User: Fold this.
Amino acid sequence: MKHLILITTLFIGLNGCAQQELNLIPYVLEQLNLNIENVKTDLMVSKIHPDNPKETIVVIPEIAEASGDHFTLNSYILITDTETGKIKYTYFESAKTNEWDSSAVRLERIKIDTTTYAIAKNKNAFGVRVYYRGSSGPNPFYYETISLFVVESNALKNVLKNYTIDSFSGEWDTHCAGEFTDHKKILSVSCNKTNGFFDLLIENTITERETFVTNDNDCDEKITINTEKRTLKYVNGNYK
Assistant:
């Protein structure tokens, strides 16, 4: 009971939809037999399902290991009853395989992507995005991954795992001169099918930026933008 009180206290001050969604958390943790002390609460998220307001998507990051600034997380991806909080569908993955690891490259944010990805007949997937950022000033770096989940056989199935959807990297002198590369990807669903599932289309916009000191001692830049396209197909139970 003390754990439920502590969880409820954490969310006092929230209102609207955020309050409604997070109010489910105490009962969700109770069903999973998890203590609040073993959960990374600042990364825990929930959101009303876009296709069915009677359901809420919940992501629970359980602390698997923590030492100083380093931690690894087990992942619980859930669909719950919006009114009662009862868990309807579950996906669990251990920190040994899910790559939810925060060290020199920090895991800073987890988001639920409720874009409707209609990947097959009567199968709409939703996404979980995980954002990482490097700690080096001269070598800025970040990336964001997306994983897609769909209900299948009374459980949640991961059909796309940790696909890098955005990334940025560079090297500069911390004053002006440097080179940077930015990848921004848009994911959409094709009309073509592979093994009964629609292909996923990836459009990648690549921005390369060079900054330099001019003869007038100003800082200027040269920008080059290109696009690439690729297709992910459903093979052996996953998009590849």
In short: Confidence is low (pLDDT under 50) at residues 1-19. Residues 15 and 22 are 10 Å apart (CA to CA).
